[in-house]
Amino acid sequence: MDEQLTFEFCRRIFEKNEVNLSREQFEKLQKYADLLIDESARQNVTAVRTRAEIWVRHFLDSAYLLRFLNDSSDVLDMGTGGGIPAIPLAIMNPTLRITMLDSELRKIEFCEKAIAALNLTAIAICGRAEELAQDETYRGQFDFVVSRAMAAGSMLSELSVPFLRVGGSLLAMKGRQYDPEFERFSQAAEKLLCSVDAPIPYSIESEQKYLILVRKLDETPSQYPRRFAKIKRNPL
User: Fold this and answer.
1) What is the pLDDT of residues 117-126, one digit of tens each?
2) FRET partner for 16 with CA separation of 20 to 30 A, picked from 42, 138, 174, 205?
3) Dihedrals φ, ψ of 144, to 5°?
4) Using omega within 30 degrees of 0 as the cis cutoff, is the peptide bond preceding 85 cis?
5) Cβ proximity of 120 and 152 under 8 Å
6) CA distance 224 to 216
7) Is residue 82 pLDDT above 90, yes or no?
8) Across-strand partners of 79?
9) Is the Cβ–Cβ distance between 35 and 113 less than 8 Å?
10) Smallest Cα–Cα separation from 196: which of 228, 227, 174?
């Protein structure tokens, strides 16, 4: 299928999923795919090894979030790994002010390399969410937190919501095995002074997925997030 990855072929796939793709965006995404494949020989930035799969499972999936983000929003990608969904979002909408956060330095170094190679305005930070969320430089500074398969809903909410401004939203991307009883978004939201929308089902090239929106209604109580060991041992 890789030989079919022409601009027109990818543009039609994106269009079918209600996303516009320009030639400049296509070329940057192709370059990013090359960077991901090359880096994966050194560290696990993606388990996907072909460009065709990267386009569908990473780029198209990331692009689904665009309809929920406002231009010029401050967006934090929690547990960004190799830059998904942050880097595709930065390519598709350059007005977004994107920050990428991960606790693994090598992954952040790769993200910085990709940002420079693709001439993006995003920034990448290495640190632990539960520590940075207590830092006034980051706490309450973002309109959106996005995350894909980082952690179960309760843990993800506790780590993410403190970064949001009141009125902001966590956009949590979940796969076809999404189980609300296991994820516990609603239980965490009550303690974090948030509300949770009904899960939004969507499909990417026939693969079922879910998007969970957690909306911040009031300032997060100062005790959150707790230390990581406590979050893990005693979920909200």
Assistant:
1) 999 999 999 9
2) 174
3) -140, 145
4) yes
5) no
6) 13
7) yes
8) none
9) yes
10) 174
Judge whether 65 and 88 are in contact, CB under 8 Å: no
Distance CA 10, CA 22 (A): 10
pLDDT at 48: 72
Q: What is the pLDDT of residue 3?
A: 47
Residue at token pair 């957690």: 214
Q: How far apart are CA 172 and CA 187, in angstroms?
A: 15
Place of tokens 């990581």: 228
pLDDT-derived band at 12 (thresholds 50, 70, 90) equals: very high
pLDDT (tens digit, 9 = 90+) per residue, 148-205? 977 889 999 999 999 999 999 999 999 888 898 899 999 999 999 999 999 999 998 8
For tokens 């993006």, name the residue.
120
Instruction: List, in sequence order, every residue forming a beta bridge with 103; answer none if it has no partner.
Output: none
At 24, list the tokens: 């400049």
Query: Where do we find the tokens 């198209």?
Result: 60
For the chain, domains (ranges, CATH) are: 68-233 (3.40.50.150)
CA distances from 201 to 17, 133, 195 (A): 14, 30, 18
Q: Measured between alpha carbons, how far is 24 from 21 in angstroms, rounded to an integer?
A: 8
Which residues partner with 146 through β-bridges? Answer: 77, 171
> Does residue 217 carry a pLDDT above 70?
yes
Residue 79 corresponds to which amino acid? G
